Amino acid sequence: MLRTDRYFRLAWLGALLLAGHALPAAAQYAAGPTITLEAASDERRRGLSWSEGNPVLRGSVSVPIAPGLSLDGAATTLWGSDRHGGADAAIDLGGTYARQLGGFRLTAEGRYHLFPGAGDRGAGWSYGEVGAIAGFSLGPASVDLGARYAPRQSGIGGDNLYLSSSAAIGIPVTPLTLSGHVGRSSGDARDPVRAARLRPTGNYWDHGVALDWYRGRWSAGLRYADTDMDTSDTAHAGASLIARVGVTL
């Protein structure tokens, strides 16, 4: 294990321990956590399939612990993903801090991604990233600019920077929201094999549009995702249409 990886994991462990110490305060601040259960036809992130085009189940929880600050966790089935060393699931742990300044939103976040069942050394496939998002809302419309950075780690064969812009608008007099995004993945590749997890052909662009329906606790949606990669392997990258349905408890 690289020394930088060891320090990075120790820092995340310390953050999680502090978060755990703060959890008792959550009951004093909020009525309880928000839990969401979803089923989707694919788990596609930044234009890349993490489940090889197979359907997935996902559960997530968000626990507010102070004004604007929440701890988040999610688990997604991957069914032996080749992209992540044969992992059976992806577990995402982290926190989010958001501030609203008039019509502007400023958000800082940190995530650590774990992959149970990955390879002979499951921990060697885990990695973390931090991010910042600036957004603006005007009526039913919103625009966001984001940057997420994964420092150099052996699990991803280098470092990774993801820059994105997105927009969404609620369609008046309907429970529908239309959104779209474009993103750019880049970074340094010290280990080309591991770097291919997040950038299979090197630096690339991804884009997508989505139409989501919300009614009370229930939601559903269709999303089109694509990249500029020169590939016909749509099970891993390229044009894809993803359907999802979920409920929030």
Task: Describe the protein.
Strand 9 (141-153) and strand 10 form a beta hairpin. The chain is built from three helices and 14 strands. The protein is mainly beta and 249 residues long. The chain has one domain (3-248): Porin (Beta Barrel). Pfam families: Gcw_chp. Keywords: Signal. Residues 1-27 form the signal peptide.
Short structural description:
By secondary structure, the chain is mainly beta. 11% of the residues lie in helices and 57% in strands. The chain has one domain: Beta Barrel (Porin).
List the helices and strands and how they pair.
Blueprint lengths: L2 H20 L3 H4 L4 E7 L3 E2 L2 E2 L6 E11 L2 E13 L5 E15 L2 E11 L12 E12 L2 E13 L4 E13 L5 E11 L5 H4 L8 E12 L2 E10 L12 E9 L1
Antiparallel strand pairs: 1-4, 1-14, 2-3, 4-5, 5-6, 6-7, 7-8, 8-9, 9-10, 10-11, 11-12, 12-13, 13-14
